[in-house]
Amino acid sequence: MKKYAEMTKEELSKEIEELKVQYKKYQDMSLTLDMSRGKPCTEQLDLSMGMMDALNSGVDLRSEDGTDCRNYGGLTGLPEARQLLGDMMENNPSNIIIYGNSSLNVMFDTVSRAMTHGVMGNKPWGKLDKVKFLCPVPGYDRHFAITEYFGIEMIPVPTNEEGPDMDMIEELVSKDEAVKGIWCVPKYANPSGYSYSDYTVRRFARLKPAAKDFRIFWDNAYCVHHLYDDRQDHIIEILAECKRAGNPDLVYKFASTSKITFPGSGLAALATSPNNMEDIKKQLKIQTIGHDKVNQLRHVRFFKDIHGLTEHMKKHADVIRPKFEAVEEALEKNLGELDIGKWTKPNGGYFICFNAREGCAKEIVLLAKKAGVTMTEAGATWPYHEDPHDSDIRIAPTYPPLSELQTAAELFCLCVKLASAQKILENM
Amino acid sequence: MKKYAEMTKEELSKEIEELKVQYKKYQDMSLTLDMSRGKPCTEQLDLSMGMMDALNSGVDLRSEDGTDCRNYGGLTGLPEARQLLGDMMENNPSNIIIYGNSSLNVMFDTVSRAMTHGVMGNKPWGKLDKVKFLCPVPGYDRHFAITEYFGIEMIPVPTNEEGPDMDMIEELVSKDEAVKGIWCVPKYANPSGYSYSDYTVRRFARLKPAAKDFRIFWDNAYCVHHLYDDRQDHIIEILAECKRAGNPDLVYKFASTSKITFPGSGLAALATSPNNMEDIKKQLKIQTIGHDKVNQLRHVRFFKDIHGLTEHMKKHADVIRPKFEAVEEALEKNLGELDIGKWTKPNGGYFICFNAREGCAKEIVLLAKKAGVTMTEAGATWPYHEDPHDSDIRIAPTYPPLSELQTAAELFCLCVKLASAQKILENM
Q: In degrees rounded to 5, what are phi and psi of residue A322?
């Protein structure tokens, strides 16, 4: 098929008429489909139902070290939970704190603590005139919401398949003392699905920040979330690399089991240097007596060890891989030759990122909405919800059943075609 | 027996010699006993083991409203969890937010949010020159630790059996705009065990604060923690009373199931006015996607309703009532006639408060320590750990087995006698 941009005005008008007829048919179907949410589907949740049997009234609820998990105490987590999450995050268990059910909450608290009490003895960010964060884009809207909530200025940094623009990051971080942090999703990134190259991670570890209290917020949310057994991304472990580079305190690293067991009822964890740990524990012991140890025990008893968790993740992959493939097939089939959009083909994670022609994303999402398919809001992947190119759209294939997803993907492609054709025609 | 203060120097010296002989015998026993911690004992924890069977892999994990509790979402909590906690707290479920496992964490976050973002549109406390909290004493050390952590000046307010000194509170709150809050444990208070009188609660609800963003931090930690079926304290429900008094937004009310099911694996909750709820939710939706709904469901399925929870609390009372009685008997038997200390006789809660002669508390706790009995640090019940009278000692009878507790209580009385006699002799 001819590329839209190469069509004549008449050809394009005719194409639009045909697309509208198809679009009307979808509207008449009264669909209510959803590709907006990075949520596991029911089949995935069912994979962890065995965890509900891991503990019962006949089971000893003491941890390896004899702690009665039913009672108060244990600020950093059970030894066996730190071991399991340590193996998952590729960190020494002694560098890990097990938190409650939400790594987002841990990130929020980390920024909040820096605002009120500063980082390792430095001036609280809340006492400074200006605090800035670097935000690789497209990125995760809930990260940006935290920094926006605290009045932190966000600077978008472009990314490609290797990760964010490290030249720009090195420049900004080394020259501006107001730059205090950066949001990173280094593996199977939300929303691109791409992972940082070795070179990118090495450059991160070797940053020379002007601010002593600059920290990398390394959200390794998808560390074990592979789609394939034979095609897996691997990234260099950042804490170890920072230590080797003489920058041991540079990173806060976050992870959780939210998309491994049950979102909202999993374990969150933070890995960081001993200095940062001490700094954090000063607050943590005031904030809480401890996190949910029974749930820590439940997770460990269910998985037994990292091998159990790895096998479990293969089952997740088996459920969601066909969904990713269905979306990719629909995109390829419908849009492959039209040159009106690009999309990522990740090896893991929860998202595909679609790059529409400049100025088309909002219209595409609106068209989809009007035909009954909810997409993540256009612009959501940028700070302040402002995508200057109006181009990025996050596609979340995991939640809907496969048949619904196929319909939704077809309709999405139709919306891309319609919005793009109209845009090109306008500009003729 | 003769009161110590009425003894001659010779009589007192002889008494001290005899006490030292007895003390030496205890030291030779190499005891390691603990009356410091407000923790449930193993027998109490066993009462909730049935909760581990409330959910299993064959059970439907959807809530009343159809929510799949295994997935993301649900910022304010499941309807049935809000109902149960609402019945427990005597509040409308719609005025309740169910949190994670720690009400202390909720209180910390509440202060932290006021520091960074202010209360209902008022200036953030962190931007003010001075913020003050009123602290009824003796009080809960972890409350005071939160306000100390945030650099809030703490003003001790004396309490008696009716609650804190309301004349002083009314004066300070109405005249000083820097006074932004007060820590209250209104029922079976930590550590006195006493409950606020109706008149006290009514005066709280009718406060006329100089600061629009003054809030009462009403920690109703022991709302259902009665020791007796026939002797129960009742306090006026504060939110309703504030509403009647035209002060609907005056209170944040906290509670949890920590000492009902498993500390660290329970549910925490906050009840407050619709205005405060809206203010809080603005932060909460940035901080987390939601709390642990599976654990909410587990609690509701275990208790079924407030009647189930009430019956459960009777079992707790049966376990710990003999412990409170054992301590009270030891105190009465050993110290009843000597006029060297007073103690509270609560109808519920987790503590007995012992008032030593002025200047004796630290020495008593030290003597106990040296003979193998750990008490809560003297001074811990005052802001900055500074008890100006060196008098208050918190006794926590619940955790040790009864036989150990009896030994510990006997030794404690001996330490009181020895320290008091020495003090009186010194001052002769």
A: -60, -30
CA dihedral B69, B73, B75, B80 (to 10 degrees): -20
**B75 sits in which H/E element:** none
d(CA B414, CA A412) in angstroms, rounded, equals 81
**pLDDT tens per residue, range B253-281:** 999 999 999 999 999 999 999 999 999 99
Whether residue B1 has pLDDT greater than 90: no
* Interface contact B292-A100, CB threshold 8 A: yes
Lowest mean pLDDT among A32-36, A41-45, A353-357, A392-396: A32-36
**Which residue is closest to A114 within chain B, CA to CA?**
B116
How many C-beta atoms surround the C-beta of residue A1 within 10 A?
Answer: 10
Q: What mean pLDDT is reported for chain B?
A: 97
Separation between Cα atoms, residue B261 and residue B93, nearest integer Å? 20
Structure tokens that stand for A207 in this block:
């940053």
Cβ-contact B237, B90 below 8 angstroms: yes
Domain coordinates in residue numbering, chain B:
4-44+310-426, 62-304
pLDDT at residue A1, as a whole number: 78
User: What type of residue sits at position B76?
Assistant: T
Cα–Cα distance measured from residue A167 to residue A157, given in angstroms and rounded to the nearest whole number: 10
What angle, 0 to 180 degrees and rounded to 10, lies between the N-to-C axes of helices B103-117 and A274-287? 100
Cβ distance B9 to B422 under 8 Å? no
The pTM is what?
A: 0.97
Peptide bond into B191 cis (omega under 30): yes
Task: Say which amino acid occupies B391.
Answer: S
Amino acid residing at A142 = R
**Fold topology of B4-44+310-426:** Aspartate Aminotransferase, domain 1 (3.90.1150)
Helix, strand or coil for residue A255? Answer: strand
What pairs with residue A133 in β-bridges? A154, A181
Calculate ∠ Cα A125-A129-A135, nearest 5°: 65
Q: How far is B54 from chain A (nearest CA, A)?
A: 9
- Structural contact between residues B173 and B179, judged by C-beta atoms closer than 8 angstroms: yes
Most B-contacting residue of A70, A109, A117, A140 (CB-CB within 10 A), to test interface: A70
- In this structure, are strands B392-395 and B352-356 parallel, antiparallel, or unpaired? antiparallel
**CATH for the stretch B62-304:** 3.40.640.10
Q: Is the pLDDT of residue A305 over 90?
A: yes
In chain B, what residues touch A49 (CB-CB under 8 Å)? 57
Partner-chain residue, chosen from A55, A61, A101, that has the shortest CB–CB distance to B291: A101
Task: Determine how β-strand A96-98 pairs with β-strand A268-271.
Answer: antiparallel
The DSSP output letter for B182 is E
- The mean of the pLDDT values for chain A is 97
Q: Do A102 and B288 touch (CB under 8 A)?
A: yes
Residue B348 CB coordination number (10 Å): 25
